[in-house]
Amino acid sequence: MNDKELKVQRYREENKTVKYGQTVFAGSSLMEMFPINKLLVEHNDSMVIYNRGIGGFISRELLEAVDVCITDLKPSKVFINIGTNDLSDSRIPISELMENYDRIITEIESKLPKAVVYLMAYYPVNYDAAAENMKECLKIRSNEKIRTANAEVKKLAEKHGQRYIDINKNLMDGQGRLKAEYTIEGMHIKECGYRAVYDDIMAYVKEEI
Fold first, then answer.
1. Rounded CA separation 174/180 (Å)
2. Interatomic CA distance for residues 153 and 168, integer angstroms
3. Which of 1, 70, 172, 182 could form a disulfide with 5 if both were Cys (CB 3.0 to 4.6 A apart)?
4. Treating both helix axes as pointing N-terminal to C-terminal, what angle do 94-111 and 143-160 enclose, rounded to 10 degrees?
């Protein structure tokens, strides 16, 4: 059993004791690494947020595990950041990613018709601040490609009557790249970067629906 399968299995067990009607974060490593519960404690915030991100997930894998990562928890709000690993793979066209994403949302709407789904804009990257072993990947997953994909995510949200949100402004430098001081290796985000977007994402978590 690989690491992703182990996490799905662990989440399946943890889901047996969740409180329904809360908020769920789902996606790949950029969501899994969001230290949301640590930040909630630091801010004396009593909100309940379940993080069901799984590092390495592509959109097809979240579709296959949408029950464990989202619908089994019966949340009132779902925040999704999925597809960056698809964007890193030159063999996966954006159209295929969006087809899977569309199916994920349809599945959520089918099981949880009252839930609000927040489709998050993909975070920027920084090729110039990247580790050498990350540069080939970031030639594929460029900020230009990310902007194109974000436009498609926005269309998808509009199609479903769901929410497209972009909390990236505090992460970006003057050139629209992920700030060098916030990135681990050009792509993943340090805790200080997540702190920079905490207030913005929490405004959506707390908004009345």
1. 11
2. 15
3. 1
4. 30
CB contact at 8 A, 33 and 189: yes
CA neighbours closer than 13 Å in the CB half-sphere of residue 13: 5
* pTM check: above 0.85: yes
CA dist., res. 139 & res. 194, Å (int)? 24
Q: Which residues contact 167 (CB under 8 A, 6 or more apart)?
A: 120, 121, 197, 200, 201, 204
How far apart are alpha carbons 155 and 140 in whole angstroms? 22
> For the chain, which domains are there?
3-206 (3.40.50.1110)
pLDDT by residue (tens digit) across 36-69? 999 999 999 999 999 999 999 999 999 999 999 9
Rounded CA separation 27/69 (Å): 8
60: Cα separation from own chain's centroid: 14
Name the token pair of 69: 């990562």
